[in-house]
Design goal:
The two termini are about 55 Å apart. A two-stranded antiparallel sheet has the order 1-2. The radius of gyration is 30 Å and the shape is globular. Helix 13 packs antiparallel against helix 14. The chain is built from 21 helices and two strands. Helix content is about 70%, strand content about 0%. A hairpin with a 2-residue loop joins strand 1 and strand 2. By secondary structure, it is mostly helical.
Length: about 450
């Protein structure tokens, strides 16, 4: 963008830099007043050198900034070129999903996962969703456990890219039978079953109506997995098999996400049956499963209070005692990080159960932010964060689906002048670097003079 179109603040940067430099020079002179007695000639020379050094750095900084500013005119062209290159790479990845080599297919799935989680590609994927769905179906049916897990994750991201609605629902209906078969298959890979549980929960969440038949089916299927961790008739918890806590956690978290869509009539049934059982699972030997159970209990209690202000947890005293014990757990046989994480989570759960207190969290992205002010919003945000990872903020900023879920409205279109009216980090860095170097040089000279005097 040409300089002539910049705001007043942008056009006066060189002058403001020099003013700051002059102030810096005066403060430096004052601090060195005692040393300068008897050395006025040398001091004057050093002052001139200080000004010369800083102005030299600032001049080069202004030139560097000018180069950057002049380059902004070609941003649109660069973005278009980058978009075309990205689409070419994605087309190649989709082609690679049909290769015979399992290694090639895995690499293609990983590339698609990274692209889908970091960019919004609705237009591109709408045209190719059937092709991608066919490829994912093939990987889920015939691939190894690792390939099945990767394919289920990409399916989840595909539904998020399609923004829910008919397109996502069609992909889910096409692949739901395979996801179900893998999830209930005890001989299948644990990683694949976990990924299928998450995919079933998230895809159903973004593509199903609140009281849809698919919602009820998905809830029942996920329940059948984590209910294996419930105590038997004698009240004894089953012995956990290797890998099963991770599967139970994934299924429980996917289930709790879908519970947020349930109508009040369904919620009452869920609360009556599951809350007492989940309280018993707080004694599980796996820390991550205990945490998932604690968060689910808090969510269910919150949902219960939303539909009935006088809702009370059965045997609340026993529940609070158990939560207090977990919130202060200091057993040395548990890893330090596990103890810290457990104490933090269960303190929050306990405060909510006792006083309805919730620790609000503010998520910033671009010039916007979203507030996580309830267990419901935390469950939804954590579900998207788990699948989108570091790309969750980008999707909050640009993906209409997430913006609709969190009540953010359409994506903002920012005027470029917003950026030009602010001093960039690069400019600040250049000035601070110049001033620091000049101060260091001056102080070194003063130290040398002090050494001579002494």
């Amino acid at each position: 963008m040409p300089r002539s179109k910049k705001g007043k603040r942008g056009s006066s940067k060189p002058g403001s830099l020099r003013q700051e430099v002059l102030q810096l020079q005066l403060s430096t002179k004052a601090s060195q007043k005692g040393v300068r007695n008897g050395m006025k000639g040398e001091s004057a020379a050093s002052d001139d050198e200080l000004m010369s050094d800083i102005l030299s750095h600032c001049s080069s900084a202004s030139e560097s900034v000018s180069v950057l500013e002049e380059g902004t005119g070609s941003e649109q062209v660069d973005e278009q070129t980058a978009q075309e290159e990205t689409e070419d790479k994605l087309k190649q990845c989709i082609d690679n999903l049909m290769e015979k080599s399992a290694k090639t297919r895995l690499a293609a799935l990983e590339s698609l996962r990274l692209a889908f989680s970091s960019k919004v590609l609705y237009d591109f994927m709408t045209e190719r969703r059937l092709t991608v769905s066919d490829c994912l179906e093939r990987s889920l049916k015939k691939g190894s456990g690792e390939e099945q897990a990767a394919a289920a994750t990409v399916l989840t991201l595909l539904c998020i890219q399609l923004g829910g609605g008919d397109e996502a629902e069609e992909s889910l209906k096409m692949l739901r039978p395979i996801l179900t078969a893998i999830l209930i298959d005890n001989s299948a890979s644990i990683a694949a079953r976990q990924s299928c549980a998450r995919a079933l929960g998230m895809c159903c969440y973004v593509s199903t109506a609140e009281e849809g038949e698919d919602l009820i089916k998905s809830l029942a299927l996920l329940e059948s997995i984590f209910m294996s961790s419930y105590p038997n008739r004698e009240g004894t918890l089953p012995t956990l098999k290797p890998g099963s806590p991770g599967l139970y956690s994934a299924s429980l978290q996917a289930w709790s996400l879908l519970v947020t869509l349930c109508p009040p009539s369904r919620l009452n049934v869920v609360l009556d049956f599951h809350l007492p059982k989940l309280q018993a699972c707080l004694q599980s030997s796996d820390v991550n499963y205990r945490i998932a159970v604690g968060e689910t209990i808090a969510l269910l209690v919150e949902l219960g209070r939303d539909i009935d202000e006088e809702f009370e947890v059965q045997d609340s005293e026993s529940l609070c005692e158990c939560l207090k014990s977990l919130a202060t757990d200091g057993n040395k046989h548990r890893a330090k990080n596990d103890r810290r994480k457990q104490r933090s989570i269960f303190r929050e759960v306990l405060h909510y159960i006792e006083n309805e207190d919730f620790t609000e969290e503010k998520i910033r992205f671009g010039v916007e932010s979203v507030y996580i002010d309830s267990w419901l919003r935390r469950r939804i945000y954590d579900a998207f964060k788990e699948i989108l990872e570091s790309g969750v903020r980008h999707h909050l900023q640009f993906n209409p689906l997430l913006r609709d879920i969190f009540g953010l409205g359409p994506p903002l279109i920012l005027d470029a002048s917003i950026k030009t009216n602010k001093i960039s980090r690069f400019e600040k860095h250049l000035f601070n670097s110049a001033a620091f170097k000049a101060r260091t040089k001056q102080r070194n000279k003063v130290r040398d003079k002090r050494a001579d005097v002494m």
